[in-house]
Amino acid sequence: MSVASKKPDLPVQFGVYISLLIVIVLTLVPFYWMIVGATLPQDQFFTYPPRFLPGTHFFENLADLRDRFPYLLSIWNSIFVATVYTVLSLFLCSLAGFAFAKYEFAYKEYLFYFILATVVLPVQIMIIPLFLLMANFGLLDTHIALILPFAANPVGIFLMRQSMKSIPDSWLDSARIDGASEFQLYYRIALPSVKPALAALAVILFLFQWNAFLYPLVVLTSEELFTIPLAIERLVGQHRLYFDQIMVATALAIIPITILFLLLQKYFVRGFAGTAYQP
Amino acid sequence: MTSIELDSVNKIYDSEGGEICAVNDMDLEIQEGEFLVFVGPSGCGKTTTLRMIAGLEDVTTGTIEFGDEDVTDLRARDRDIAMVFQDYALYPHMSVRDNIGFGLRLSTDIPESEIASMVEETAEMLGIEDLLPKKPSDLSGGQQQRVALGRAIIREPSVFLLDEPLSNLDAKLRDSMRKEIMELQQQLGITSVYVTHDQTEAMAMSDRVAVLNDGELQQCGPPEDVYRNPTNQFVAGFLGSPSMNFLEATVSSDGDTVTFNGDADFVYHSEASSIAEALGDRNRCTVGIRPEDLVVGAESGFNVTVTVVEAMGDENVVYAQVGDAEIRARVDSQHRLSAGDDILLGFDDDNVYLFDAETGDSLRTKDLDSAEETEKRITSPER
Amino acid sequence: MSIREHSSIQAVRTEGRIARNRVRDSLPSFPGVPYLYILPFFIFFAVFLAFPVVYTLYLSFFEYHGVGEGFLFAIDLGVFAVEVPRISNVEFVGLENYTRMVGDGLFWLSMWNTVIITVFQMPLMVLVSLGVALALNASFIKLSGLQRTLIALPVSANFVAYSTIFLMIFSEQFGLANYVIQLVGFEPIAWQSDRWWARVMLAITLDWRWMGYNMLILFAGLQNIPGRLYEAAEIDGASAWQKFRYVTVPQLKPMLLFVIVLSTVGSMQLFSEPFIITEGGPSNSTITILYYIYDQAFVYFNLGYASALTYVLVGVVTALSIIEMKIGGED
């Protein structure tokens, strides 16, 4: 990092601070605007000039939203799908990543680079066949259809292999002498040793599923199975006039994850830095 | 506690360029309760051998027996061994307490309460009871080493394996841990195999030292024996610090006097009959002299120019040039030598080692009497 | 010779071992373990990733007539039988799906829209995120960590949810954006009804969402530049600008390239934002290529044509990435 021996002149410093302040304000305004919209009663929403202070109508708006749409169920669906998906994918990726990092077997390098090559493929390239597969399996309009497809994640196996490579062989040998079975090596030694990488990968996977829109849009049709993005899309498409309620929905979609981001920031950043995937 | 026997053990790796022989036809017996040290340069096969004894590495051909039991195909966890690794291999996510108890939890049915008290006792023995609740990352290198030892001995293994356990420690700590490991081994009486690349460590710690090079056992015996009577030039050069001086020479015999004509301005006449005997009718050989056997200010010897003087305290290591060859001598610091001095280095006939110029096999070693004795014990490598 | 009194240890150990080994030995032996570990991943990988990628290519030479019935083929081995279903009912049309694109005006428009939005969006975003990263990395900045966190907040925002907020902000009549613009004395902007402003609006929206993300990556890159390089430059008498030009830029270049390629790939796959905010309008001026593919596939069920479009999109994205890396790679 820059170790400037002399600080720049005060006006320059001032200018930099002002610029950063503008960027921060622009970044925060939409969040603030969302809160304002979610807490104003509906009749005060579409006014001109717009209102700038939050109201107190959040829970009334939430109640109206729930009358209109089973939105809390959508939140639950999103949490459920993203969590199950994350756990499944972590298991598949870490187990295979462990094999690639710590065992020798035939065609190992070829297999790994074959998987890795698929990182560059956009998710969209799989959607049409996935739709057909799910139709054939009778899984259209189920949560399973959302959970299974992207569980074998090339980014995931890459991150897991990288982090598990740094586990010294001696830890595994030592555990073998201590009487551990091969599977115990995986879950008692390898997994706990790469907790930070697991957390970072979990963030990537969870957000991928949490944000997924196009594929769920294709697969799901029943409102009671909708995830948050589908629910908001449905609200915007069919109930465009009730923007106070829509803002409650977006606030409930954004604020918990933002709090999670603030709490687990280092894993988010580590996850972003370790992935070439813009989901 | 058990004896270990390696019988024609081979380890061959497949690699892209063909097969690589990491350990070649190794025969070795390790007695019950013995402390045996494998020593050799890196890549000599010492760690591979240790890992085969541990069961972490398959044996390509040959057998390994513990006592009367053939363990060649037994998995590591079924061999009743414990091992200490160079990087200690402490599991970072477990406390010291859990690290020490891990093996007992996995491989025995001892109740939890008893494990806890065994962990306490072991920690007390090693003086680490205060560290039990800590994580390995909070410990110093020496403390981690003690925990690793604790984890190994708590299981009361019949064989104790140590893979360069001291090489990550700083010099001072290394000396004290060396002593501690020796005491511990004597106290417990567990058959121990120790791998190191440090010949000083090997000499200091072992009941017997096994010198390896290029996957072959060169010599195995008590450290003093191996030091005084190396079977070949490699062993002679590997043990001792600074290492033995070697000078290649042509030999001419004139009645009672043997004359060595070094490739590097080195001429040496000897009237000792043992030297002539050892040489037979060879006309080339390699002369070896240990640095501590060279004397400054002798009446005869060879003239050298000092190039570097390393002060060691009461002794100095003097580097000097003899023609193209470099000579190392350990001399008393009272001589006050400095670079550029011309000195006369002499040595006694008794201290001359001779090696075959082609094979490197020893022709004459230091102590003729004991040489014959130990010859029976020394397993000479097959070439 | 035990130094302790646990004389039972050997007996207990043996008993425990035997019981445990019975379980362990029923597991596959040592050499099979890695294959066992990669098997679950590869099953998922084959069915849900490798197969679809190939099948999309296959479909692009066919016309789709409906979900398939019956079996493509079946393997009967007595003990177990595998029946591979025919997952779609298709008719071979050769390259027709690809030749059809040439005359498809909406395809070309969607390509054009996507490229235009990318061109509007990316330079601004890269410049701002670089500027912010540099500023936050400067030694005189206080509370750098807090400011970084605030600026990075949008990285956690759900795509559809944040798009909805921007739909409201850019409302022509009631939106915050137009209010502020009028406040400073300009005419309100037709964000939703003007073709060009609609594209600009999407570009701004994307910049908001991704600026913080890219800033984090660039900031990490700046942090990784060894301080001694700046010290050496300082000793060599470099000015602040020279330090930036000859130390920061070359050291940060891989990260910058990474950000640019990533953003291109992302922008070319733009979908949620136009779908929510503009619904492709006005007059199809914000239909992106992926939006068009979605319409073809799941509104008109031209799955064959949509597959061909998908492969063209992948081809274009790959080509753009390679071009960017080629340009960025040489100096």
Automatic annotation (TrEMBL), chain A:
The keyword Membrane applies. Keywords: Cell membrane, Membrane, Transmembrane, Transmembrane helix, Transport. The keyword Transmembrane applies. It is a multi-pass membrane protein. The chain crosses the membrane at residues 12-35, 75-98, 110-137, 143-160, 197-221, 241-264. GO terms for cellular component: plasma membrane. CDD domains: TM_PBP2. It is found in: Cell membrane. Residues 75-264 form the ABC transmembrane type-1 domain. Coiled coil: none annotated. Gene3D superfamilies: MetI-like. One of its GO terms (biological process) is transmembrane transport. Belongs to the binding-protein-dependent transport system permease family. This is Carbohydrate ABC transporter permease. It comes from Natrialba swarupiae.
TrEMBL record, chain B:
It is found in: Cell membrane. Residues 364-383 are annotated as: Disordered. It catalyses: L-arabinose(out) + ATP + H2O = L-arabinose(in) + ADP + phosphate + H(+); D-xylose(out) + ATP + H2O = D-xylose(in) + ADP + phosphate + H(+). Its main location: membrane. Residues 4-239 form the ABC transporter domain. Keywords: ATP-binding, Cell membrane, Membrane, Nucleotide-binding, Translocase, Transport. It is a peripheral membrane protein. Its EC number is 7.5.2.13. One of its GO terms (molecular function) is ATP hydrolysis activity. Transmembrane segments: none annotated. This is ABC-type D-xylose/L-arabinose transporter. It comes from Natrialba swarupiae. The lineage of its organism: Archaea, Methanobacteriati, Methanobacteriota, Stenosarchaea group, Halobacteria.
Automatic annotation (TrEMBL), chain C:
Residues 111-324 form the ABC transmembrane type-1 domain. The keyword Transmembrane applies. One of its GO terms (biological process) is transmembrane transport. It is found in: Cell membrane. It is a multi-pass membrane protein. InterPro entries: ABC_transporter_permease, MetI-like, MetI-like_sf. GO terms for cellular component: plasma membrane. Its main location: membrane. The chain crosses the membrane at residues 35-58, 107-138, 150-170, 255-277, 297-323. Keywords: Cell membrane, Membrane, Transmembrane, Transmembrane helix, Transport. PROSITE patterns: ABC_TM1 (PS50928). Belongs to the binding-protein-dependent transport system permease family. This is Sugar ABC transporter permease. It comes from Natrialba swarupiae.
